[in-house]
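User: Could you write out the 3D structure of this protein bound to adenosine monophosphate? I've included everything you need below.
Assistant: Certainly. Input first, then the structure.
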Amino acid sequence: MNIILLGPPGAGKGTQAQKLVDGRNMVQLSTGDMLREAKTSGTEMGKMVAAVMDRGDLVTDEIVIGLIREKLEAGGDHGGFIFDGFPRTLAQADALGELLAEMGQTLDHAIELQVNDDILVERILGRAAEAVAAGGKARADDNEESLKVRLMAYYKQTSPLIGYYHAKGDLSSVDGLGTMDEVEASIANVLG
Ligand code: AMP
């Protein structure tokens, strides 16, 4: 089973993906995590995307599609892929459909986590404060200024995917405002 978790930054995609990894032996493919890793390890690609990411804009389709292609081609024995933070543009959505088709696989569900903007700002700034309190560093893009850009990128470039997957018959929407366990239960309900 392959699924996409769709939703704005702070909607809880990463948290819910982790629950699916633990509960269903699925593999989480987070392009955000892959890009942060490239940034931290200082690869050429990491250097190229650093400023764009810190600002809150999207990196090019070519880069993220390449990252996803590599992971899909690596294969492995597991309960399916959870696409977390990918696709984020219509071009990425088309590319994902083609990649899966090439591998004889399908997309089973695109699950939209519905939340409101107030909660997002609260969660993201809370996540930054928690990281610092724990003696670590907040994500470079977890600040008010970058968050505005990330939200705008979501509404302009990513939210059209809701219509796209609705038209394909793959979309399910769940309330992302409940507790983590409530949201987990709603997702389990969709997956059956
Ligand atoms: P995330 O961890 O999903 O919030 O992603 C962090 C940042 O990585 C985003 O703000 C973008 O700059 C970049 N990024 C992650 N996934 C994508 C994607 N699918 N397309 C373009 N940029 C992405």
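Strands lie at 3-6, 27-30, 81-84, 109-114, 171-175.
User: Perfect, thank you.
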